[in-house]
Amino acid sequence: MSDPLQDPEFFRNPYATYARLRSAAPVQKLTTGSGAGRPSYLVTGYREAREAFVDPRLSKNTARFFAGQSSRRDLHPAVSQSILATDPPEHTRLRKLVAKAFTTGAVERLRPYIDEFVDGQLAAWEPGSHADVVADLAVPLPVTVICQMLGVPEPDRAQVRLWSGDLFAAGQPQQIDAASHALAGYMSRLIAIKRDQPDNSLLHELITVRDGTDQLGESELVSLAVILLVAGHETTTNLIGNAALALLQQPDAAARLRAEPGLLQTSLDELLRLDSPASIATFRYSTEALTLGGTEIPAGVPVLIAPGAANRDPAQYAEPDQLDLDRDARGHLSFGHGIHRCLGAPLARAEAEAALLALFTRFPALRLAVPAQELEWRHTRLMRGLVALPVQL
Q1: How far apart (Å, rounded) are the C-alpha atoms in residues 28 and 43?
Q2: Rounded to whole angstroms, how far apart are CA atoms 346 and 168?
Q3: Most buried of 231, 299, 328, 334 (most Cβ within 10 A)?
Q4: How confident is the model at residue 33 (pLDDT cuts 50, 70, 90)?
Q5: What is residue 70's predicted lDDT score, i.e. its pLDDT?
Q6: Residues 220, 191: contact at Cβ < 8 Å?
């Protein structure tokens, strides 16, 4: 079939398309783009998505998949050959080392800084005026926090933030490639500084972390520093924007969260389920033929796992298109599943909780400044996120 993921309506609201595809089959073949090249297989069912996330026959090794293919791209290897594009045993080794430094305790220690940053941003908002939740809160928060965590000096953060944003310049491959080299070069220099001037930053932790005799090599350090900076950037931005929109459209739910602030910690899973910031997971392909959801998938083809679709599978969640703050949505797939589950999930949650709680508590009369149907969504099938979220304070 033709590629329904390129329909302009899909970018505005993918869920009708996902529901139609899933009702036909939970796994099905798509012809991507113009129809040239390899077909892809889209996974829209919840059970099938969970299976696919842990199937060792689905590889994330993009370098091996694209080997021998000519490309005009010039992405720095720190981005193109990162931990996100590896399989065991290399992935197992890297993740074990990173997990030793990127702990829940490290995230907890950042909570006062996160709260302080959010309060500082919102303090500049004048009641009765307008603001953009995306540009004025959801974009600067995650990149500023990870800069603080990595130990990026304050004078450098504005430039690092620009490079990080350029890496997501949809439709601008040269800009993306240039940003990847700029960021990798900067992180290489910063690593050298941290070696000479040790501190308590995550970057220094990564430099010194060991597992027996094993430690991270120079190129691995640079790659991890870049990926930690950018991996949570757009996804956390989208999480905050999407969740804020859902609550703005459900005033009763927003009122409940104001009255019961502790509810947000559990209901954040429902907000993640309802409108996943990652609509389709990062690249995977079949290394051998397999059968998934009754569909035969040949070897050597991309397999697109869609958390955005799986999270709204009615076989898993009753009335999946409805926001239900009392629903147990802990099994959602917005952070993935299995060995590649998002390592930064605790940080993303901490940032979203702080941002949403402060936003709806400080401005109890917050409302959309434009009709919801006029909001513009990012033109990408991988991510689900707003270009802007204008609100009346």
Answers
A1: 7
A2: 23
A3: 334
A4: low
A5: 61
A6: no
